[in-house]
Amino acid sequence: MAESAPLIRIEEAPQPDGAQAAYVEAEDGARLRVVHYPLPRGRRRRGAVLLMPGWSEFAEKYAEVAGELHERGFAVLVCDPRGQGYSQRLQDGDMRGHVTDFRVFVSDLTACFEALKAREAGPYVLMAHSMGGLIALEWLVEGQGQGLAGAALSAPFTNLFSGRLKTAATRAILRAGIAIGKGRSSVPGAREQSARFEGNVLTQDERRHRRFRKLLEAAPDAAAGPPKFDWLAAALAANERIAAPGALDRLPFKVLLVSASRDETVDASHHHALAAAYPEKIKLVSVEGARHELLMELDRYRDQFWAAFDGYVDERLPIATSVDASSAPRT
């Protein structure tokens, strides 16, 4: 039986009925927290979604998204990335968000998928945001996710800067910092975007921005803290692997990539480049006017994400659903 884990409950971010948090074991024995949102009774069942959040995020932030997936007939399992939320830190002590190789996240995603399959019958869809989208692409390219019917990515972190010179300069700074022992130090100039709504570059929706801030205030130990030198170097190395010629030819199916036109967090132009390079593997939808956090944006932008998701799922999954309208546990 899985070990129970903390679940953050606050008035500003209500969790769907039946939400359960548990720890699952990663390949190296580390504990990863997953939050299971079973499909409520009365809903026609279509499948189950594995949701991988982005940098600094954790499961409770996606409670609203889980409810919207319930409306579409999907049970949901959200996985806290290692070093974030209540998943195990990567090093002893308070090393929130510290990582030296993104491939540890790729391995962890397999453990999370196994946790979903242990709790829910398929078909299965992967949904991932930002850093989670980068992890998802590497995972799929490596041949993982057998039995997955599709994947929908929200503003994936496939590239940080549009200019090669800026990327090269950043890599040089990171190498120098790591060489003098600053790998676990915070990257200078990285501002906490969840602290204040004014001036943030993530979302134009004040209510949703405030909701995550309240979650962080209620559970400060779940915060990841600012990005570290090692983390950013590892992220850029993962970007290089994705950008290698022919890398995404190994995707097992066409992936939905929803991009935000006003993204100042990742390089949205790279999404268009990937779609042009891999027309048989990437289905691109660009949401004009949206900021990076598409699923935390104003409704007029979120509606466009959901329209793209619904169309993609209709292509990937059969319409037929089970008669029983509840989750199909596999315990």
Please describe the structure with a list of short key phrases separated by commas or semicolons:
MAG_DAG_Lipase, EC 3.1.1.5, AB_hydrolase_fold, 331 residues, Rossmann fold, phosphatidylcholine lysophospholipase activity, Hydrolase_4, alpha/beta, 9-stranded mixed beta sheet
Write the layout of secondary structure elements.
Blueprint: E1 3-4, E2 20-25, E3 31-37, E4 47-52, H1 63-71, E5 74-79, H2 103-119, E6 124-129, H3 131-141, E7 148-154, H4 164-179, H5 206-218, H6 229-243, E8 255-260, H7 268-277, E9 282-287, H8 299-316
Parallel strand pairs: 4-5, 4-6, 6-7, 7-8, 8-9
Antiparallel strand pairs: 1-2, 2-3, 3-5
Give structural notes:
The protein is α/β, with parallel strands linked by helices. The protein has one domain (3-316): Alpha/Beta hydrolase fold, catalytic domain (Rossmann fold, 3-Layer(aba) Sandwich). The chain is built from eight helices and nine strands. It has helices spanning 63-71, 103-119, 131-141, 164-179, 206-218, 229-243, 268-277, 299-316; strands spanning 3-4, 20-25, 31-37, 47-52, 74-79, 124-129, 148-154, 255-260, 282-287. A nine-stranded mixed sheet has the order 1-2-3-5-4-6-7-8-9, with helices on both faces. A hairpin with a 5-residue loop joins strand 2 and strand 3. Helix 2 (103-119) crosses helix 3 (131-141). The longest helix is centred in the C-terminal third of the chain and has 18 residues, at 299-316. The termini are close together. Keywords: Hydrolase. GO terms for molecular function: phosphatidylcholine lysophospholipase activity. Residues 45-299 form the Serine aminopeptidase S33 domain.
